[in-house]
Amino acid sequence: METKLKRITELAKIKPDMVFTSLAHLLNEKNLKQCHHELPKGKATGVHGVTKEDYEFHLDENVKGLVERLKKMAYRPVPVKRTYIDKAGSKKKRPLGIPDHEDKIVQRGVTKILNAIYENDFLDSSFGFRPNRNCHDALKILNVYTEKRPTNYVVDADIKGFFDNVDHEWMMMFLKHRINDPKLLRIIARFLKGGYMEEGKYFDTDRGTPQGGIISPVLANVYLHYVLDLWFEKVVRKQCRGQAYIVRYADDFVCCFQYKDDAEAFYSALIKRLQKFQLEVAEEKTKIIPFGRFADRDSKRNGQNKPETFDFLGFTHYCGKSKKGKFRMKRKTSRKKVNAKLKKHKQWLKTHRTMDIKNIMARLDLSLKGYYNYYCITDNIQAVEDFVDQIQRLLFKWMNRRSQRKSFSWEKFNLFLKKYPLPRPRIKVNIYDLKQDLSYIL
């Protein structure tokens, strides 16, 4: 499959207007088995409760039957099992769909095909869920745009319930720009309209993508590629009298402008543009703020102590200065992300406080290392150290509630931490270290 996908990628690159007419045959037994083996173990199960291990017990037979149904167009995805997860910084819950294991296999196969075609089409401004790109890359490019380019205003925009409001007709129209294989298109359409189960009841889905499904990220990128990225590049930037840049990660994006009137014109046009495609700006989360080398001067003229800040990808970005007194965009962990993580740790420690202390410390060690890998970036070490201090206080509190008697004094607790030390934070990502494969964006 990898060889055939490489060929598709080459053709998509050489011929940007090429429409692919024969793709569904790639969903054969050999390739779908490979997709099955690539799926992680121990994940939540869908409506039928089939695990990877259950499916693998009769793998040859199961995949053979799946391929036959795909060929006859008799394959229909099982409705996803809807569950709800906490939304950071809010009391609201975020809906999440869990597909059946067999549907995960097909979604993975289709996702590979879509990535092979569209990876060459997606613009440099898009970073979410793409090969060899991640959140830190998006932050690095945004840093260049604010510090090295004439950025004076930032539009911090948010699309209201994007994954729940993707229009299916527009989605299929966008896909047909590059794909004209009726079988593959029908499989994708069935995923979109597969519905979901909640508390034993079935619900239709007439809009939105199956959030939580493997196929959702690439479908979201395709949709926003046509709705936002191309429009910004081909229309917005040409109409601006100054410089304009966009950085997008999935449905989260930030736009930088040289002039205020360009930023205001874009915001007005954005509302109409999204409405055309059945999307809506979350006005309470969208704002135009002065940001850049002159923001500090302008904020003082307007009677403000400091320039406004904005949140992007879990960080609060603010105007600061280098040791030489020059403008620098700095960042620290977003307050709502910190609170959400502390709440999660508090709940876990409260629930598992009677667990063996070695296991508790091993779990905290693993959790903190994952936290460091993302948040330990340039300028943010102090915020991470403050977070670790609060984790230690939570640990002290709940370890003292393991029984009726108090387990620790602070003196004993510090001795305990010498025996079971928590990992200390250090910079994992240098925001100024641009990888070579990102240099062409600039």
Structure write-up:
The protein has about 450 residues and is α+β, with helices and mostly antiparallel strands. The chain contains 16 helices and eleven strands. It has helices spanning about 1-15, 30-40, 50-55, 60-70, 100-120, 135-145, 160-165, 170-175, 180-190, 215-240, 260-275, 295-300, 335-350, 355-375, 380-400, 410-420, and strands at about 80-85, 95-100, 155-160, 195-200, 200-205, 245-250, 250-255, 285-290, 310, 315-320, 325-335. Strands 2-1-4-5 form a four-stranded mixed beta sheet, with no helix packed on it. Strands 6-7-3-8 form a four-stranded antiparallel beta sheet, sandwiched between helices. Helix 1 (about 1-15) packs parallel to helix 5. The chain is globular.
Task: Explain the layout of strands and helices.
Layout: H1 2-14, H2 29-38, H3 52-57, H4 59-71, E1 80-86, E2 93-98, H5 101-118, H6 135-147, E3 153-158, H7 162-165, H8 168-175, H9 182-192, E4 196-198, E5 201-203, H10 216-239, E6 244-249, E7 252-257, H11 260-276, E8 287-290, H12 295-301, E9 310-312, E10 315-321, E11 327-333, H13 335-351, H14 357-375, H15 381-399, H16 410-419
Parallel strand pairs: 1-4
Antiparallel strand pairs: 1-2, 3-7, 3-8, 4-5, 6-7, 9-10, 10-11
Helix pairs in contact: 1-5, 2-5, 8-10, 10-11, 13-15
Mean pLDDT: 91
Rg for CA atoms: 25 Å
- Say what oligomer this is: single chain
Please tell me what the overall shape is.
globular
Strand-pairing-aware structural class: alpha+beta
What level of helicity do the residues show? 40-55%
| Unreliable sequence segments | none
Number of helices: 16
Distance between the termini: 34 Å
Strand content: 5-15%
Question: Mind describing the biggest β-sheet?
Answer: 4 strands, mixed
Number of strands: 11
One letter per element, helices H and strands E, the order comes to: HHHHEEHHEHHHEEHEEHEHEEEHHHH
